[in-house]
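Justification of computing resources. Each target in the renewal requires a structure prediction run like the one illustrated here; the chain below, 710 residues long, is used simply to show the kind of job we budget for.
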Amino acid sequence: MKTYATSHFLSRELSWLAFNQRVLDEVLNPANPLLERVKFFTITSSNLDEFFEVRVAGLKQQVESDIVERSFDGKTASETLRAIHKQVRRMIEHQYRCWSEELLPALAQNGIHILDYQHLSPADRSWVEQYYLANVRPVLTPLGIDPSHPFPQLLNKSLNIVVQLEIEREGEIERRMAVVQVPRVLPRLVRLPRDDDKLGFIYLGHLIGHYLADLFPGTKILGFWHFRVTRNSELYIDEEDIGNLLKAVENELHNRRRGAAVRLEVDAGCPAEIYQYLLETLELTEEDLYLIDGPLNPTRLMVIYNGDHSPELRDKPFVAPTAPAFRGVQDIFSVVRQRDVLVHHPYESFGSVVEFLEQAAQDPNVLAIKQTLYRTGGDPRIVGALMDAVKNGKQVTAVTELKARFDEANNILWARRLEEAGVHVVYGIVHHKVHSKIALVVRRDEDGLRRYVHLGTGNYNPSTARLYTDLSFFTSHPDYGEDATNFFNLLTGISHFQGAKKFIISPFTTHEAMMTFIRAETQNATAKKPSRIIAKMNSLVDQEIIEALYGASQAGVKIDLIIRGICCLRPGVEGLSENITVRSIIGRFLEHSRIFYFENAGAPKLWLGSADWMPRNFFRRIEIVFPIEEPVLRDRIINQILATQLADNVKASILGHDGKYTRVPVKKESAQRSSQAEFMALAMGEAKTRRTGRVVKKNYNKIQVAKAPR
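Resulting structure tokens:
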């Protein structure tokens, strides 16, 4: 394969920051409802937290190692870190300026007030004092710092107050430092009592700051400033040298909270001598310092968004209807036995997936249930169905991924509860995360045993299923059932991968298969046969795949990529990638489905799955990519879902060859197309047709496939 210059690839980390900038753009967009802007404000910060905990932490470890190398975009770890810090500073400047100049005043105008102590009314001050004495003071621990009291070990992302004070000892005035940890067990925004519909809050950290003299009696408080430390949160487990993976993950979770510091956030007004002291103590440099002019932990601002208030400040409510195939149906198995079914979440209810499992748990004809669980969220309906199935005498197996990042503790909890209920819990394969989304139900039908399979692009989590765009596929096709059986045997038994009839499975065949599909399109274009690639995913990082796409573009293949997050491919470069477009859609819902379309000389191939085009998904995870072969379902995905997203000019941004994203220009307001809005309208329209008998026109857009030149 041809070797490409490093300038032809975009930095993974900087591409991720470009994604988070697009999230921030939703905060900055005044056309969005106010509370939705607040929600995106918190998401922007939550994303940055995880970015520093994992990606920045990894880069800092590379810098500290003895190995110096360049990534495929040509940057060393140090060069990437410098670019990250520069870009993040610009991002948080815009974020917090928007908070102070736009969001905070707009919230106040709409009766939602975040108040400083000095602006409280006498009645509020009296209530705050009682709240402090009854709820806050008992759980506070002032920590003085001196030779006998070293600097405390601060937990990852905890909010703290550094206090500078003076104390008189033996006639001498001594200046000291102290730390007060803001309790995590209390709400970060304390809601003040109100008799009307207005909302009033005070920051818990500011409330504690007002009463510092109570915590340090006999001293003079010179000043106090909030600060927050972000730590390396990657788990480090030698899976070949452990006897119990569950115990190993539990132990490592305790270490995560105390990992090496990678970022220090401090109130913008903090004196240099104070933050320099903190940096030195935490073994950080000024490059790792971020002075924040606003709330240090914006994720806790979701309390403003949550609750039954201010509907006029939110997106219009949307309740997903049941998918047409399952509407009014008592027996899901009777439907799937007759035909394959596709469900588009969150526009069609995830309840059908839950009912599939619940019916399997109660159905006396069901013999066994097997399911992978990556991020369940501990939903009682999902795990409850598996537990009920055991009570009803069925054989139940759950493959639970203990190493699902930041969900490890939750998954450990539910794995134990499942085991206690009698579910056979398996923790996957050494060195690989089980990221696939599959459930297998074995049922005794009148004509013999039949296997019913659910496959998805998203997790078995009803909560996130209301927010993430994903696809569910139900089938009783024997080949899918056979592949599902062999797949679970691979996970639970001791065997080698034996291949599959329908599935493409990582880490065994996915990378090779995708490379084969791309090369086939390249050959078709060279032979003047119809060729086209459309791929929708979360991230595109794998270098070999990118180089194969460059080769396809140079051969004349038209390639449309819909990539929500990271994209290391540089599109639109003359002679290299001028036939490739990359768009990202950031909207009300999180784009999460993975769809892969190959024109295949006029005999299209269409695949769905759980895998992005990243090395980790190809080689370090257990993934399933599966074909959609039923013509009606295939047509729906190609000419409704993909085509509508490619026509989006409201929430879509286009990636340029310079690595920057720009909004799709719209000449007339009447020509605006929001794919998510259209999918919601389509789902509600189909439901209305069902209720009233009135036909609502479907907005189908035909994909224009390449034609063989004359």
